[in-house]
Amino acid sequence: MGDLICRQAAIDLLKQMRKDGDMIPWEGKDVFARIRKLPSAQPEIIRCKDCKHWDGVDTCDVIDAPVWDNDFCSMAERRSDEE
User: Fold this and answer.
1) What is the 3-state secondary structure (H, E, C) of the chain?
2) Pair 62, 54: CB distance under 8 Å
3) Max alpha carbon distance in the chain (Å)?
4) Are 54 and 72 in contact (CB under 8 A)?
5) Measuring CA to CA, how many Å separate 62 from each of 21, 27, 51, 67, 73?
6) How does pLDDT run along the chain (83 residues), one tens digit per residue?
């Protein structure tokens, strides 16, 4: 996956380039609309109940803290079908 960027920052940059007289790639093809249509790069959230570290009890073995099945954290790893 590529780097995450802010759509609005990209649009602002292109507008500034246009204002400064710099050449904008694909000028005339409404690059601004194309940027707005790009898919969002939201990170995947893995709930505790779907994490490979979840054992169905109220404590997570990774963070050694109480959790609910609908909680999530940055250390979650999706459980495979075999697990």
Assistant:
1) CCCCCCHHHHHHHHHHHHHCCCCCCCCCCCHHHHHHHCCCCCCCCCEHHHECCCCCCCEECCCCEECCCCCECCCCCECCCCC
2) no
3) 61
4) no
5) 54, 51, 11, 11, 10
6) 566 777 788 788 888 877 888 776 666 667 777 777 777 667 788 999 899 888 888 888 888 888 988 998 888 888 887 65
